[in-house]
Automatic annotation (TrEMBL):
GO terms for cellular component: cytosol. It is an enzyme of class 6 (ligase). Residues 533-612 form the AMP-binding enzyme C-terminal domain. Residues 32-84 form the Acetyl-coenzyme A synthetase N-terminal domain. Keywords: Acetylation, ATP-binding, Ligase, Nucleotide-binding. It comes from Subtercola vilae. This is Acetate--CoA ligase. NCBIfam families: Ac_CoA_lig_AcsA, PRK00174.1.
Length: 650
């Protein structure tokens, strides 16, 4: 009997991919880790915290006495920047490369751990001279360049709280974030490079600061050479200050719960929330999971998270995870198709990248462009590839596995959130027999469940709400300045349990599949349908490049499925026969109940800067409402294009 709260379990998947024997034998983590963690979760995490160098050891692993406000590694003190830099230099790794930086125009820099340490000390000295003290907030609005990492670590070194804002956001979005966390200093650049031209940034900061009287200093990196206005007394050039400062800086140790940063969520479902992460627990989480999920071999790997630093994935897997593990990483400034569609593969080939971590939106773009381009480069150095940010459609997973992984390397589909700080549900690459489209199992130390409306675990083969039932070290500590919203958003639907806001199902083997956001779930004639499954069915048709599905009010069925579809170039512009074919395709793949009432062929979909589809805006279109808040869209003109295309019957 189907519980009324459960999502219909629509799709089936029989394909499974085991790691090679060679990979499994050399893997960092074996199946024993699951048993070890479930025997004593706190002891498991206390052991992982030993990866870090503590100035004062902690005396209690977790204080949950004022739940849901957690304190991890109580009594311990550490400096996050020292853990990412100084200790590696002290251990003789100063000459190891921290970053291979690849600028969009083709400029490159190789930065070692010694050099990065010196630069961070210099920047810390300058921030101190600008009056920045522990606990102060510093906003960082930068392109993807080494100075962004240096700025973050300089803050961490001083115990100042950074808030990195996507370099593509508008003055208004920047202003809102600066005001929300009361930042007093902004670090920016004159401009960055994007798709072959200069995109100015300082003017955006200047405009934002008209509304931010508390900001007293702006530190400006000279990156793109564009002309900028200058406010003497407020504005300071990076190259005149940081590069001239002393590289000697004695770091102070801070409490394990000292705040490290505030990161605003992407705003896919509503207003962004200022998520607060602290020091010891967060660093333990990203350090351990990077080593575990990516099977990190720091001596030999060249690791590349192809994401923006202005997104949590960049914080945890470009900066804090990799540096705390003394990893060599690639840092790439630009977009995947500048100056040509082979740019990523050229970078993999050039730096002999071993590990690539990116979003399904990028994979779907490569599928659209065609796999022929990849054949021009050697991808033989890759030994593991990962995906994050949205459910990966089985079709996209198979393409990634075949054309990037050459059917040879494990694929890890990693589920997590800004709030969780680090990866929560993912295959273990040396253990799991992966299924295309499934995040599989909670990692050792993480306790996840799928529950119905009453908070009761659903049986295998059923869908429901994804929850995390035990606290974990890298969990958010609160929403900045709004403890009550923290409790209401995450801990009130099922008291005592973390509510992620995502739908999920357990398949017949008990493995976890993400079904999309609970806010996006459709209810058609009493059947609760997942956006993800219908989108994946559409994407499995060779004519379709991308699809987004929403539920729109319907007099007959309560809600009806409305699909927005981007066709592959070879499919033409999509006449009525294509729409008919796609409706039949969905009916065949998963059943008549999931058949879209309407399919709109569009040229683009509204996405956040982190590549997530903003279904709430499409719902506005499908229900003929004015579209809501678009400030976190990568390209705000997309909605106008879609609305125009639809009214002209495109
Ligand atoms: P907001 O909370 O402001 O609406 P957001 O949820 O998009 O924004 P993020 O924290 O960047 O902000 O994204 C986390 C969400 O991304 C998850 O809740 C989930 O919906 C989705 N997600 C991330 N990774 C995966 C994955 N591997 N599979 C499925 N969904 C994923
Ligand atoms: Mg969210």
């Amino acid at each position: 009997m189907q519980h009324p709260a459960a999502f219909e379990n629509l799709s089936r998947e029989d394909r499974r991919f085991a790691p090679t024997e060679e990979f499994a034998e050399a893997a960092n983590v074996t199946a024993a880790a699951y048993a070890e963690a479930s025997a004593d979760n706190l002891a498991f995490w206390a052991k992982q915290a030993e990866r870090l160098t503590w100035a004062e050891p902690f005396t209690q692993t977790l204080d949950w006495s004022t739940a849901p406000f957690a304190k991890w590694f109580v009594g311990g003190t550490l400096n996050v920047a020292v853990n990412c830099l100084d200790r590696h230099v002290a251990a003789g790794l100063g000459d190891r490369v921290a970053y291979y930086f690849e600028g969009e125009p083709g400029d490159t820099r190789v930065i070692t751990y010694s050099q990065l340490t010196d630069s961070v000390c210099q920047a810390a000295n300058v921030l101190t001279s600008l009056g920045v003290k522990a606990g102060d907030r510093v906003a960082i609005y930068m392109p993807m360049i080494p100075e962004t990492v240096i700025a973050m670590l300089a803050c961490a070194r001083l115990g100042a709280i950074h808030t990195v804002v996507f370099g593509g956001f508008s003055a208004d979005a920047l202003k809102t974030r600066i005001l929300d966390c009361d930042a007093t200093v902004v670090i920016t650049a004159d401009g960055g490079f994007r798709k072959g031209s200069v995109s100015p940034m300082k003017p955006t900061v200047d405009a934002a600061l008209l509304g931010c009287p508390a900001v007293r200093s702006v530190l400006v990196v000279n990156r793109a050479g564009n002309d900028v206005d200058w406010m003497p007394g407020r504005d300071v050039w990076w190259h005149e200050s940081v590069e001239a400062a002393s590289p000697v800086h004695a770091a102070e140790a801070f409490d394990s719960e000292h705040p490290l940063y505030v990161m605003y969520t992407s705003g896919t479902t509503g207003n962004p929330k200022g998520i607060l992460h602290t020091s010891g627990g967060y660093l333990t989480g990203c350090s351990f999971t990077q080593w575990e999920v990516f099977d990190l071999k720091p001596e030999t790997d060249v690791y590349w998270t192809a994401a923006d630093i202005g997104w949590v994935t960049g914080h945890s897997y470009i900066v804090y995870g990799p540096l705390s593990n003394a990893t060599t990483s690639v840092l790439y400034e630009g977009t995947p198709d500048s100056p040509h569609q082979g740019r990523w593969w050229e970078i993999v080939d050039k730096y002999q990248v071993t590990t690539l971590y990116c979003a399904p939106t990028a994979i779907r773009a490569f599928m659209k462009w065609g796999h022929e381009t990849l054949a021009n480069y050697s991808l033989e150095s890759l030994r593991l590839i990962g995906s994050v940010g949205e459910p990966i459609n089985p079709e996209a997973y198979m393409w990634y596995r075949e054309h990037v992984g050459h059917n040879r390397v494990p694929v890890v589909d990693t589920w997590w959130q800004t709030e969780t700080g680090s990866i929560m549900i993912s295959p273990l690459p040396g253990v799991t027999h992966g299924k295309p489209g499934a995040a599989m199992k909670a990692l050792p130390g993480i306790v996840a469940d799928v529950v119905d409306d009453d908070g009761v675990s659903v049986p295998n083969g059923t869908g429901g709400y994804l929850v995390i039932t035990e606290p974990w070290p890298s969990m958010l500590r609160t929403i900045w300045g709004d403890d009550q919203r923290y409790v209401e958003t995450y801990w009130s639907k099922f008291p005592g349990t973390y509510f992620a806001g995502d739908g999920a199902k357990r398949d017949d083997d008990g493995d976890i599949w993400l079904l999309g956001r609970v806010d996006d779930v459709m209810n058609v004639s009493g059947h609760r349908l997942s956006t993800t499954e219908i989108e994946s069915a559409l994407v499995s048709n060779p004519k379709v490049a991308e699809a987004a599905v929403v539920g729109a009010a319907d007099a007959l069925t309560g809600q009806a499925v409305v699909a927005f579809v981007i066709l592959r170039s070879e499919a033409g512009d999509g006449g009525p026969h294509v729409v008919h074919e796609l409706r039949m395709h969905v009916a065949n793949q998963i059943g008549k109940i999931a058949q879209p009432r309407q399919i709109m062929i569009v040229a683009e979909l509204p996405k956040t800067r982190s590549g997530k589809i903003m279904r709430r805006l499409l719902r506005d279109v499908a229900e003929n409402r004015p579209v809501g808040d678009v400030t976190t869209l990568a390209d705000t003109s997309v909605m106008t294009t879609i609305a125009a295309g639809i009214s002209t019957g495109m």
